[in-house]
Amino acid sequence: MSDTFQNGGTNSTTQTYTASVTVNPSSSNTLTNTKSGQLLFTPPAANTVYVYGNLTNAGIVSYIPSTVGSGNTFYLGSGSSNTLNNTGSITYNQSNATSGSSVYLQYGTINNSSSGSITLESAGASTISAPYVVNLTNEGNIRVLDTSGSGMTSNWGNGTGTFNNTGSFSVDDSAGSSGSTTNLNFKQIANSGSVSFSVPAASTIITQVGSGGFANTGNWSITSKGNGAGNIQIQGGSSSYTNNGTINVTDANLIIANALTGSGGTVNLTNNANLTLQGTNTGSGQTFNFSSANNTLNVSNGATFKGIIRGFSQGDQLDLNVTGTATYNKTTGILTITGSSNTYSYDVGKGYTGTFSDSTGGVVTYKGTTPCYLSGSMIRTPDGEKAVEDISVGDTLMSWDNAANSDVTKSVVWVGSKSVVANPSLPIDLAGYPVRILKNALADGIPYQDLLVTAEHCMFLDGKFVPTRMLVNGRSIFYDTSMVRFDVFHIETEEHAVLTANGARSESFLNTENHGLSRRNGKIVSINAHRIPTWDDASAPLDVSREFVEPLFHKIESRAGIGECTTQSHQPILTNDPDLHLLTDTGTVIYQARKGDDRVMFMVPTGVRQVRIVSNSGRPSDVIGPFVDDRRELGVLVGDITLFESNETRNITSHLDNVDLAGWNNIEDGHMRWTTGNAVLPLGERQPNSVAILALQIRAAGPYIVTTPRPQDKMLLTA
After folding, report:
1. Cβ-count burial of 34 within 10 angstroms (0-12 exposed, 13-18 middle, 19+ buried)?
2. Quick one: which H or E segment has residue 310?
3. Helix, strand, or coil here: 303?
4. Which H or E element spans position 554?
5. Alpha carbon of 568 to those of 18, 448, 474: distances in Å?
6. pTM
7. SS3 assignment for 677-706
């Protein structure tokens, strides 16, 4: 069919074009397609359709090639002087193309109303762009999709106007085999709807703004199939970017070039996401939520960071570019990094049961596990018991109300599962083995049969929650190392609950750390899904203090003796001998020359400028008992260090001045510090041809678990 709209005009009927065609050839004319009008383009593959000039569409404009083959070309509009007003449907669909299509919306102004839909779908490394658009207003749905190929190109905007989105705008090249390129280039971007990008690894997504800035009060989402390489940024302008909505980063690297501020903003990092925040005083009014594992928040100026951080799980990192010793307070939820001259505090949330590493090179890493049940655990419901693996969203469970001292019911809002593989190379409480609580371990009939839970799963005892790892006695409660691979199951209720499993009370899932680490077996329906809870939201308090846990531990341990439980793990042999010696960079061992009071003396050969303080080491949770919630590796507690050489006496303070010094724990009371058992100690400049005496003040040492004796054939140097 030939074009019947040589000078624009109005269409209210169905017009079908089965070959290449140019419609409305003049750029100055306007073609109006009414609500009853249909412009249907069905040429074979490898053909071109032009619809020039202005377009006002309330009906249907559709381009679907009639055959499979090379990509077609579709031009809508003639350039920046043209306008598209769309209240109807505009569709291009060549998802079976064998090579990339080319679709161009060549308008300076695009207005897509709330009833308007623009869907552009192709395959094979297509180009789908609106390169001339100055002002893009979207209240409806704009969707760009490429279903295969080596990466799509999609460019929107010429950098001079405004992108105002209150509807849905999405670019999806997630099926691409390699990196795609997407650019939004506007003077101002304001989003109160939904903007999403889903791309393959090594993609480029540049959101460029000018003096008008970037403001998000809706949802802005970026998802990548891998965070390697690529260039994904929000950049441009000189002012802070505003986020009063939600920014989602999933398995992608995103750089936000200016400070991100606002009120009530949320930034979600999920599944290996890496977010870099540049600018000073960034994060004000923002909550950064970690979900799944191995996410990184990189703050270029961590000293001025103002954000709130929630949801740490195993392997998550904070790169604050602030070095120092990390101290976490479970009660206040504050992570403090103490440097050589400054102290910085960050709100990371209450109740983490894992550990935060010291900030080495500016990076803090979290290590922890997620509490849950193993399969076969029988959960009490109003209708009897039900296996944990069979529980579904919407089920009703029995819960103990600690305040009312009575049973209540709670609805399940989320269930999840996860496969676990233990790592025998780690300490047993961190290796991932399940904890087996034997029948009758806690009381007669509690549990009524063996109960298997993860180490961080909390039992409800004497009105409080206690992590199971703190109750392990090696007899009635022990790590079951026979189980290397297993599935675990989580149950989240509308409010945190005290559930009964195999007759023993313990916690439901409290998402203080991580939802996404697990497969979801149902939809989250909690009205509080936008906020990660803390232990303040728990149905009972968490108590990991020695004063509370140790009596419980010994009470349970004494029951194991009465019940004549078989010992599953032997009590370690302890020693108070630190086996303290020095090690030079060349591998020479220097043993102590003499000892007086709390000072240990070593004779250091000439030319040695650095030594390692080597000793036995142990964790208080191992050598004292699991009821001590201190899992630091402690060697010896070093106070003053003095070097005597020739006629000079010099105090060495590098272990107190350099918070990043390898092999040291946090500084205590400002004048002493535990080693980890292998601590670097720089000695500074030495006198030529001179033997020095190094005096270490040892404030505390031991006990330690006896392992393999040290070799006795090392050379003892006394000169």
Report:
1. middle
2. strand 308-310
3. helix
4. helix 546-562
5. 79, 20, 5
6. 0.65
7. CEEEEECCCCCCCCCEEEEEEEEEECCEEC
In 510-662 the beta strands, taken as DSSP E runs, fall at: 519-520, 574-575, 581-584, 589-591, 594-596, 599-604, 610-614, 636-645, 648-652
For the beta carbon of residue 424, count every other beta carbon within 10 angstroms.
10
Q: In the numeric block, which tokens belong to residue 708?
A: 């393999």
Rounded distance, CA 683 to CA 582, Å? 12
Residue 484, number of CB atoms within 10 A of its CB: 14
Contact between 715 and 600 (Cβ < 8 Å): no
d(CA 619, CA 421): 24
b or e along 232-264 (b: 16 or more beta carbons within 10 Å of the residue's beta carbon)? bbbebbeebbbbbbbbbbbbbbbbbbbbbbbee
**Count of beta carbons in the 10 Å neighbourhood of residue 645:** 18
CB-based contact 319:298 (threshold 8 Å): yes
3-class DSSP state of 621: helix
Return d(Cα 521, Cα 389) in angstroms, integer: 10
Which of 497, 424, 506, 527 is closest to 459 using CA atoms? 506
* Residues of the chain under the 70 pLDDT cut: 1-3, 226-229, 292-293, 313-315, 351, 353-354, 358-361, 367-370, 511-536, 562-570, 708-719
The token pair at 314 is 């195993």
Supply 339's token pair: 């440097």
**Distance between CA atoms of residues 381 and 149, nearest Å:** 51
Instruction: Render pLDDT for 394-451 as a digit per residue (tens, 0 to 9).
Output: 999 999 998 888 999 999 998 888 778 888 888 899 888 999 999 999 999 999 999 9
Q: Which two tokens stand for residue 367?
A: 């290590």
Taking the C-alpha atoms of residue 516 and residue 290, their distance in angstroms, rounded to an integer, is 9
Q: How far is CA 319 from the centre of its chain?
A: 12
Dig out the tokens for 664 from the structure: 């040291």
Q: Where are the alpha helices (DSSP H) in 359-500?
A: none
d(CA 440, CA 457): 18
- The CB density around residue 490, as the number of other CB atoms within 10 Å, is 28
Where do the DSSP E strands lie in 422-524?
435-437, 451-453, 458-461, 464-467, 477-479, 485-493, 498-501, 504-507, 519-520
Distance CA 691, CA 352 (A): 49
The position carrying tokens 């080596």 is 150
* Residue 124 burial by Cβ neighbours in a 10 Å radius (0-12, 13-18, 19+): buried
